[in-house]
């Protein structure tokens, strides 16, 4: 089956379907001092976060523009200890492993899907790769955001696009160190989600 995915920036690619709920509620008392431009668009902000950094960025995006939050969870949780997760994640990445999802979401109601992942050894996390494979993003604006511990974006945004043999220009995604949200408002303005 062919799919057509539109990554934010207007790039379309035809794709072959051959590659192998927990909703969070943010503090409703947060005040936003600018106008949201999302009245006619249904937005989903989805992410995986091992350390909490990507979760914090996702929640900040949610507080700024609204929409729904969805945390991608693996069927078998990753280890809590850093050295254990390093070992397991490297094995999964090197083996091109697709871990099973604990939860799924119906994306049919959404026009725009923000997808957040930590940078793990230069790429997206295996569980985000599984999410991309198992969810149909046909006709959606797909907007990546990446957190990292010093490696920048490396191949994360391109690897996210390649899950569908697609293409994402690096400047259309947001990349931040740890849980820093520096530049997030400006980025959302630049991609027309804030005025």
| Number of distinct helices | 5
Shape: globular
For the residues shown, what is the average pLDDT? 77
Cα gyration radius (Å)? 16 Å
Low-confidence stretches: 1-39, 165-170
Taken as a percent bin, the fraction of beta residues is 15-25%
Distance N terminus to C terminus? 39 Å
Helices and strands, in order, run as EEEHEHEHEHEH
Overall number of strands: 7
Largest sheet: 7 strands, mixed
Question: SSE layout and pairings?
Answer:
Blueprint: E1 2-7, E2 11-16, E3 43-47, H1 53-65, E4 68-71, H2 82-94, E5 112-118, H3 126-134, E6 141-148, H4 156-162, E7 174-177, H5 184-190
Parallel strand pairs: 1-6, 3-4, 3-5, 5-6, 6-7
Antiparallel strand pairs: 1-2
Structure description:
The chain is α/β, with parallel strands linked by helices and 195 residues long. Helices cover 25% and strands 21% of the residues. It is built from five helices and seven strands. It has helices at 53-65, 82-94, 126-134, 156-162, 184-190, and strands spanning 2-7, 11-16, 43-47, 68-71, 112-118, 141-148, 174-177. Strands 1, 2, 3, 4, 5, 6 and 7 form a seven-stranded mixed sheet that branches. Helix 1 links the parallel strand 3 (43-47) and strand 4 (68-71). Residues 1-39 and 165-170 have low confidence and may be disordered.
